[in-house]
Amino acid sequence: MITPVLPSYKRAPLAFDDGKGMRLYTGDGTEYLDFGAGVAVSSLGHAHPHLVKALTEQAQKVWHTANLYVIPGQERLARRLTEATFADTVFFTNSGAEALECSIKMARKYHAAKGHPERYRIITFEGAFHGRTLATIAAGGQAKYLEGFGPKVDGFDQVPFGDEKALLGAITEATAGILIEPIQGEGGVRPVPPRMLKRLRQICDEHGLLLILDEVQTGVGRTGKLFAHEWADIRPDIMAIAKGIGGGFPVGACLATADAAQGMTAGTHGSTFGGNPLAMAVANAVLDIVLADGFLDRVRRLALNFKQKLAGLKDSHPDIIEDVRGDGLLIGIKTKVPNTDFVAAAIEQRLLSVAAGDNVVRLMPPLIVCEDDLADALARLDRACQSFKSKRA
Fold this sequence. Notes:
alpha/beta, Aspartate Aminotransferase, domain 1, Aspartate Aminotransferase, domain 2, 2 domains, seven-stranded mixed β-sheet, four-stranded mixed β-sheet, 17 strands, globular
């Protein structure tokens, strides 16, 4: 017998009725410290007053008009994003997967518009995760997501992470671009070294390829820069974003240079709900906070301090924690116990985290986190580690 909600998730037996700032509350008032942020989505925590104000004010005006008409919030958000990034233009979506679909289509269309429709293949990397649509699971290439869904969508060539020789060997006359996450999130919080991103930019320039970045999880301040690729001082051609830009409201976007987007003329792509007035009001409110003077400086300072203290936690529990990695407030704890068990142990301490590949536990607190919250999380993580020792005794 199937449940009314399709059982495609393994859910923890928790339901939250309320939230404020860094904390979520169950129906009986039990408080949880949120260091998962809905998988890096709730970038400004829960019920942030500026976001609530923006949403409620827009809700009393107009919710939807379709992209048949000018949407002022889109115009404003696109202008702000292009002014703050490499991009010249933006297409708005509802999710990261849709933003990646737009990015893939754009890369193919770019070459077709230049008279080379045969250049449609995109190189990706083992361990990647780019979404759950048929095209994006093919781009990610992970067997567990591909199994049972018929023939894999053609057009993606995957190479080992960090293997430049394999990458160069995969480039053919049919290659359109290279797609990569600056930090593999689902793949185990594996950062791409800045030198590798610089080299990818160079390789794309040498071979006439487009560099496509998936910053769905790493963007909008998560690493202490507005976007993670800024640490490598490079400029992509196309970039997919989502998650943090909406602060909890479904928003995604595909950002691109004018050159990369040249094939995307009227009628080539669309979205019924993408860029709706409600979403644009919230996303603009998110940028009000994230782009404010000193905000990202504060994220960088707190993140560095937290990572240093997590290294100390590793030293205190070498039989539980193998490694601490990541950048900014996208941190992975590689555990020596099953990561799902560690997530469960943290829940027992009223701390929310997220499992990832390579037996990693992700910590992705809202960017509004403070020193007291970090100290609280460390104490709860310490107790979670101790709980494994108690079970062994």
